[in-house]
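Field reference: sequence -> structure
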Amino acid sequence: MLVARKHYAVIVATLGAIFLTACSGPQVQPLMPTPVVFSELGFSPLEHIPESERWTPRRVYYATTRQRDDNLQRIDYGNTEGDKILLGMTLIGFGGPDLSWSDLSEYSRQGERSDIVDLSIAGLVEIGPYTPAESGGATADDSGALSWFMSDLNASIESARDRDLLIYVHGAKVNFYNASAFAAQLDHFMGRDMTSIAFSWPTRQNILAYAAGSDVQRAYRTAPALASLLDELAKRSSARRIHIVCWSAGGRVVTAALKHLYDQHAGSGEDIRERFRIGTVYFAAADVPDGEFIDALPSINDLATRIIVTESSKDGALDVAKSIMGGGARIGQRDHELTPEQLTVIEQADRLEVVDVSHGWEDRGFDITGHRYWFDHPWASSDVVLSIRSDFSPQDRGLTKAAEEFLWKIPADYVERLRKTIMREDLILREQD
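Structure field:
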């Protein structure tokens, strides 16, 4: 049964009063294509939501190491690196003010939409900064911002149907708006039943800054901040599990953050998987060099319940990154040259699933390619949704075994496999304790 959502102490009281001053500029992007689990199986991700909760905007929490741009009258965050983590909430609008809930629900089940549903920032509340703890030190909770943030976050978690938390970590060349909008649409297609956080790191909107390596270093410098946030969420939040979806360069942030978290707490004598409650970590088209990821894999395997890596045969962005930036093949690419020792590490990672979205394309009649396939292609995005919103095994998610034990593919009869597994909508929604 669905649990009615509570009124949230902070956002409901203050958001309406600051819409105009906190609205981001004319930054919009269209809602991602509908995952095939909805478009082909005949239901909307929003059908189960009670009448009292049918409000088209969606609230997303955020944590950012971008500095606030004080030159603007509205709240926004630029590309300058900060030494604090700024916390707050955004309200993401879906479509224009005239878009009805019934239309949004219908668009969210359609494979081909008759209209574009744009996502925009309709409002923003900054709660305040906190200073990430140094190794072995205490966190500085500036003006109680972290405590206030956690209090409101817990109110959202405890009133949600699914008491798990989702963190989205973006790739390079995007801004603060992009991180919030992506977190909102992932949350949307997961039934709006979870609580979501956008973690925004200060990449610049210039691919040369990344290709030249300066934004890569920013990614690594940001990793301890994400590790600190995960530590605080483990200590202060009521989340049952904490899932992470990262894309492209965000994979570097997440890989380094989880390794940092492990290194800080390994040998403490406690069960670190139980302490940090990391659920599924989903590396979508990740720009992480194979060697770097494999070095960190044993640590991540000890922390996470499940690790999923997707790869494609034709990811132009990763091909260019490998050629120009060096570092060898990326985990998001299909072809890998691994040493026997590296292959042994992978085989010993019992939490790892690698989904080769190109494998078997001849039987399907189409390949799944590009750098945005994980949300642009309805078959690939369905696996993201099911991996976070369920405890389904790869077979239950419609995947079939490829060559190696850890390697999975999307078969030609994927939709029919999903249909057999998911006979009704509520099977997608994780049962709560």
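Note: The mean pLDDT is 89.
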